[in-house]
Design goal:
The complex is a heterodimer of chains A (480) and B (90). Chain A is α+β, with helices and mostly antiparallel strands. Chain A has 18 helices and 22 strands. Chain A folds into 2 domains: 8-143, Glutaredoxin, CATH 3.40.30.10; 156-475, no CATH class. Chain A has a 7-stranded mixed β-sheet. In chain A, strands 14, 15, 16, 17, 20, 21 and 22 form a 7-stranded mixed β-sheet that branches. In chain A, strands 6-11 form a two-stranded antiparallel sheet. In chain A, strand 12 (187-191) and strand 13 (196-199) form a beta hairpin. In chain A, helix 9 crosses helix 10 (217-227), helix 10 (217-227) packs across helix 13 (272-288) and helix 15 (355-365) crosses helix 17 (400-410). Chain B is of the alpha/beta class. Chain B has a domain at 28-87. Chain B has helices at 39-52, 71-80; strands spanning 28-33, 56-61, 83-87. Chain B has a 3-stranded parallel β-sheet with strand order 2-1-3, sandwiched between helices. Chain B starts with 27 loop residues before the first strand and ends with a strand. The mean pLDDT of chain B is 91. Classes of the chains: A alpha+beta (480), B alpha/beta (90).
Chain lengths: 480, 90
């Protein structure tokens, strides 16, 4: 039996611990592994699937804490994982030459490599599946450090610092450039659901990861500030089974200054500012806030909108006051407005010749959003009206308010037509002839203008109904 | 290579669960309705069963299912009850 070194090892789920602290607390099996060994990964994955056992498993990774976390994430390990990096005192003291090696603490009993039958005997559990046997790899305490290491971009993905797409590694130099002299410790608040604190340093890290240029950072900061307002309900949006995306609409001079697209393809790919600002907010929510899909983000399906969306309102093509003016800001200010919404529904209308006809098309396109018989909806729908559609309304002298009221008034059905399956308590409680609108009030219909010169395609983003979320606008501050 | 983490890596000490009581007689159980459809009906039945076991009950309903319980509600539950049953979703 070996003497354990008196070394405190960093652990992923609590304060540092020495192996001697684990002695005398029932049967403890240490599983020595490292991240370059496929057999280690196999063993951890199989052991992670083990349910209750009389034996406590502890993963001892010949890695620093970052490498240990990466390995645990890859393998889906939820038992205690310790980082036991160079100079590998623990591995050496126990004579570990191969990984994986399992050691029953306080005994000489061990399993070298992957041997499912031997693990079954050691743990007293069934470990079904193939392979039953797989040779291990040389331990780092014997073989030394790996040569080269991971490619930098692969490293980011393996750390989980991503939405699944490649990211820009947030080196200190890039993060400093993103901060542009701002106080890195300044806090924008806690990000639900895990309540990670959104310091500017972390927000800047997300902006770098997302691919933002430093001049975009003020927009990212404004969007994060907006999303963290309690009235936005970032908590509910983060954890809901709804698809629940966020759309950022930018108004004012920032659009031209940053080259944001509000024209052709505004809701699609191809513009760096649009693509990366929206993505940066999502990364703050999922990484700093801990709302990783499948973990605390419980979305049944999610949607492509969850990669992130930011676009500019095309104020110059709009006959109406821009969104930020409507919401009480000066026209010369730059703002970011966040909307919690579902993915957009495209609305084709090339033949309407009157504003009434076109308003009806726009309105009825939203009738099936959220759920076809769920009337009225109580959260915000966002219409993006294309310039040609906007011009038709402008030619008829329609204000934004008139269009909003016309859409609201148009989309109405008798309760009797809605009384089956998934509908609201209001519909069930109403007489069959009672008219029911699609929205609780016209103000739940928000309108902005964007899109290319040609084409008659508008869009509507359905609401995150039941979230009690409201659009939030924040001024974009250029000062540091 | 050194990177600036986007995560808040402060380690939080896990909060231990309160010990499970041997039985429910004389215990106060909070029944938290998150305010989703028919959660109250579910809790009505749970309440009946708990009372048959000799437990006292306290009913608390969140004002909005998609938001966390208010601080006052959490304090009320912590102050008045020893156990909680939550009706989560429809």
């Amino acid at each position: 039996m070996s003497v354990l070194p008196d070394v405190a090892l960093e652990r992923l789920d609590g304060p540092p611990v020495a192996l001697s602290d684990l002695c005398g607390r029932g049967r403890v099996v240490l599983v020595f592994v490292h991240g370059d060994c496929p057999t280690s990964l196999l063993a951890l994955r199989r052991l992670a699937a083990v349910g209750d056992s009389a034996v406590r498993l502890v993963c001892v990774a010949e890695e620093d804490v970052v490498g240990a976390a990466r390995l645990a994430r890859r393998a889906g390990v939820d038992f205690t994982t310790l980082a036991a990096p160079a100079p590998y005192e623990v591995s050496r003291s126990l004579g570990i030459e191969t990984v994986p090696t399992a050691v029953l603490l306080g005994t000489d009993e061990r399993v070298v490599g992957w041997d499912a039958d031997a693990y079954e005997r050691l743990l007293g559990v069934a470990l079904p599946g193939e392979p039953r046997l797989k040779p291990g790899c040389g331990a780092r305490s014997v073989e030394g450090e790996p040569v080269g290491g991971l490619d930098e971009l692969e490293d980011m993905l393996e750390r989980g610092w991503t939405d699944g797409l490649p990211v820009v590694p947030p080196t200190p130099e890039r993060v400093d450039a993103m901060l542009g002299g701002r106080d890195p410790e300044r806090s924008l608040g806690d990000v639900p659901p895990a309540h990670g604190e959104a310091t500017l340093r972390r927000v800047a890290s997300c902006a770098v990861l997302a691919g933002c240029r430093p001049e975009y950072f003020p927009v990212v900061v404004a969007a994060v500030e907006a999303a963290l307002e309690p009235a936005f309900n970032a908590h509910g949006l983060a954890v809901t089974t709804q698809p629940a995306g966020v759309a950022i609409v930018v108004n004012g001079p920032a659009r031209e200054r940053l080259g944001l697209n509000g024209g052709s393809g505004a809701l699609g790919p191809g513009n760096r500012a649009n693509a990366t600002i929206g993505r940066a907010l999502r990364l703050v929510l999922t990484l700093t806030g801990g709302a990783a899909p499948g973990a605390l983000d419980r979305a049944t399906l999610g949607s492509p909108l969850k990669v992130g969306l930011c676009f500019a309102e095309r104020e110059e093509a709009s006959p109406w006051p821009p969104l930020h003016v409507e919401r009480g800001f000066d026209a010369g200010m730059s703002t970011a407005t966040v909307f919690a919404v579902d993915a957009p529904v495209s609305i084709s209308d090339h033949r309407s010749r009157t504003p009434e006809e076109l308003a009806a098309t726009l309105g009825w396109a939203a009738a099936g959003t959220w759920s076809p018989f769920w009337w009225p909806m109580d959260d915000t729908s966002l219409y993006v009206v294309c310039p040609e559609h906007a011009a038709l309304f402008a030619g008829a002298g329609w204000s934004k308010e008139r269009l909003r009221d016309a859409i609201y008034a148009e989309v109405v059905r008798p309760a009797g037509e809605l009384q089956h399956g998934e509908t609201t308590p209001h519909v069930w409680a109403s007489d069959a002839a009672t008219p029911v609108h699609k929205w609780t009030e016209p103000e739940k219909i928000q309108l902005v203008v964007a899109g290319g010169e040609a084409g008659r395609f508008s869009a509507v983003f359905g609401p995150c109904d039941g979230m009690g979320t409201r659009p939030i606008t924040k001024e974009i501050s250029w000062s540091t | 290579m050194e990177y600036v983490t986007p995560f808040d890596e402060r380690v939080r000490e896990p909060i231990a669960h309160a010990p499970r009581p041997e039985d429910l007689r004389g215990r106060t159980v909070a029944l938290l309705d998150i305010n989703k459809a028919r959660g109250a009906e579910f809790l009505d039945r749970v309440e009946e069963l708990l009372r048959e076991e000799g437990a006292e009950t306290v009913r608390v309903a969140k004002p909005w299912f998609s938001r966390p319980a208010t601080g006052e509600q959490v304090a009320e539950i912590a102050g008045r009850a020893e156990l909680v049953v939550e009706a989560l979703a429809d």
